[in-house]
């Protein structure tokens, strides 16, 4: 499981159906199998082998409470199947549903494997550290080199479509890491930085110094993505971490020192890259275009919602529904999509809103009730520990990222990352010193 978490940002994949053509690709209808999906599948098989080796059987007498839980899960699964069947493209919907099942399995595996919090967060930390080193290299080289083994496409700031920041007529490449967009990298680095805060709080001596150094490097890489959503998410999350660390009387000194160092890094970066930071904050030409596009995406999504309010467009089917609603917006191309370039059909930059658009009202209510249930038990029924503070900070960052972008719902890496974070939350309620054999058996026994 530690290897899976470490390799989450790697985009190695086998594409078995590519929508569009060599000039105009449509990524949201492209079907592929990621290397991390295969790895997770192998981990699931090993966990199931452990389960079936149990001396006791799960097929014991169902208690009333367990039967209710089973019916709830069966109902949710039924709604998921119905959503896929009613989708515009059922194959695409079932493809996305399979990724959700894998993400749910990742969440369960975080719990039942019995791996310590320190090892799990260290895996996130080192994965982010590797991405940071690569990001810094990419920014100073102003190039992303293609690698089929890492799933990386070549990126050149001189080519239109590459994510850049403009200043004084110059196009500078934003850091990608191994991920398909700088915003995606920023989201992963936010999670890695939050993991480093937990490790700084839990460690001491040279280890604390090392984690602090790594956090500083991750912060520099985050700034080099020039992702406004990622930077906002981190600093609000950090503020939440700092405030609750003070209020709940954790060891504040290392957190305060980290905060001071972070402010120094941001100040030095802002002074050294004054023109770039100013362009990103005040809004240059590209920033204005991005803002206009996002406003257009939300206005168009309201039109799509009118015909899909109850059952949604189908998982992964939003851009297909968008093309169906707006087929004649632009007649400037004669490629496979004659009325509009495929890449112009983009989902709204809000994962919660996109979830509702694709899943419909009923599944959205399930998500809302689940969040309320979690919040109630989180604040009422668990003692304040560094682990609880870590989970609170993670969900703060996750909520902000999901509110400002869609990749946590629209891409496998984002879905898998969300699954791991949910696994941390479940682990907070179900964390006791048992063997993996006992954990697997007891988890499913208590669930059903």
Write the layout of secondary structure elements.
Elements lengths: L1 H5 L6 E5 L13 E4 H18 L11 H23 L3 H23 L4 H25 L22 E4 L2 E4 L8 H21 L2 H21 L2 H20 L5 H20 L1 H9 L2 H22 L11 H8 L25 H30 L5 H19 L2 H4 L1 H18 L6 H12 L1
Antiparallel strand pairs: 1-2, 3-4
Task: Provide structural commentary.
The two termini are 24 Å apart. Helix 2 crosses helix 4, helix 5 crosses helix 7 and helix 13 runs antiparallel to helix 14. The protein is globular and about 55 Å long. It has 448 residues and is mostly helical. The chain has a two-stranded antiparallel sheet. About 4% of the residues have low confidence. It is 67% helix and 4% strand. The chain has one domain. Strand 3 and strand 4 form a beta hairpin. The protein has 17 helices and four strands.
